[in-house]
Amino acid sequence: MIEVEGVTRKWGNSLGVIIPKETVEKERIKEDEKIRFMILRNTRVLKESFGTLKGKWKKSGQQIKDQARKELYRE
After folding, report:
1. Secondary structure class of 69 (helix, strand, coil)
2. How many CB atoms are located within 10 Å of the residue 45 CB?
């Protein structure tokens, strides 16, 4: 089992996951092949970044949180 990052894309009324070419080649994944994967949102990066820009950012903490929410929950 390997861990890899993919990107979701709209595909009709569904979403598809783009698997990087290098992973496809390394794992020899073929078209129409059934695979299993776990879904983990990349929210940890956001949590780790709070407090690291103290004194370096011109926006208030509330403005930064509002912007992060917009990006995190955009539809």
Report:
1. helix
2. 7
Task: Kindly list the distances between the CA atom of residue 24 and the CA atoms of 33, 41, 46, 71, in Å, as whole numbers in the listed order.
Answer: 11, 21, 28, 29
∠ CA 30-34-40, nearest 5°, is 105
Residue matched to tokens 């011109």: 58
Predicted confidence (pLDDT) per residue in 14-61, tens digit: 999 999 999 999 999 999 999 888 887 766 666 666 666 667 767 787
Give pairs for 22-29: CB < 8 Å, separation 24+.
Answer: 26/2, 27/2
Higher pLDDT, 66 or 46: 66
